[in-house]
Amino acid sequence: MPRRHLFAGLAAILALAVPLAVGSVAAADPATQKQGARTVAVSQAADLPDTNAGLTVTGSGFDPTVDAYVAVCRADIAAADPLTRCLGGPIPDENDTAGWALVSNDPEGKRNAAVFGDGGSFAVDLTLGSAADSGVDCVTESCVLIVRSTGDAASRPKDITIGLGFAAPSSSSSSASSTTSDAPATVGADTIALPDAYLGQQQTVVFTGFTPAEEVEVTVFSEPVTINGIVATAGGVVAITFPISDALVPGVHTVQAVGRQSGLIGLATFTVVAAPVTSAASASTSVASSSAESSAPSSAAAPSTTESAPVVTTVSSTTSEPVIPATPTTSGTNLWWLWVTLALLVVAAGVGVALVASRRRAQLLEQERLDREAAFAAADREAAAADTA
After folding, report:
1. How many other CB atoms are found less than 10 A from the CB of residue 311?
2. Rounded to two decimals, what is the model's pTM?
3. Fewer CB within 10 Å: C terminus or N terminus of the chain?
């Protein structure tokens, strides 16, 4: 598996729904998230001001018969959680701020509402009064823009979330300068084992540069999935391995690793794709091929490069590219000639037996004829002898 580096283009990473921690240094670019036919875009996803931030949220492909809420909430919100830990207060209970919006064909006089357009599209503007409001502090905690259809969690489609990053507040130019200098760094992954992964596979992401032995908070977005118990090695290497589960729907996902001591933020993206369709024959062929390759002499393996770090080499060796299904063979159907040959042999044997039987019968009939002629000749001789006497 070739190594993938994501050091360049943090703005592109944020465009794929990356929730950032305090003082992110990434550019304030728009971000888009797609789930099936539904698409959501937000005008700015990073370096949002801590007060009076303005966002424009657009969407398309939604069911216009089902209302939708648009809000900014804590990133760890689950599908079954009510929208209570959001900027501006609980939504929609008695909440008349412009920090959230309702998209509906019957907005019922809500202060901030929009009506669905063609193709289930919409556009709303949010004005966030404060990034630290109603028990939610989006400056020190990860927050997301969330678009949720109404109804219970079991019947509605999955929430669509886009990570947001807010700038730390500053009371003076000196404090702002201090905040900027103390802002944690952001690094890309040294290794992403499976840039394209599918359900059931094991993904491994490796970061370097963390404080030795520090605890690391790891979250996989877009639907937040927390991975506990991650600790950096003595060399500051963080290796994260997790399964591709049903919670990771097809599309682009982001792995965020935040060091508890260093504050270093590691970011990596990968794509979940539909699993390849394999038949039983092709699967057995692939397994046989893999077994043959694994039993090949070690001298045939590609030599490892000296520039690769040992941990990266270890992680890479435990993962493999998705097996490409082999073309099923048709050896079973090519045995028709054997059956034809057997049939011809049976027919030939039958004909031979019939010929032998026919010849035998002819011989018997000939012998009977000769016996009769001999008997008649003997009778004639006896009669002649009697007349003579």
Report:
1. 17
2. 0.42
3. C
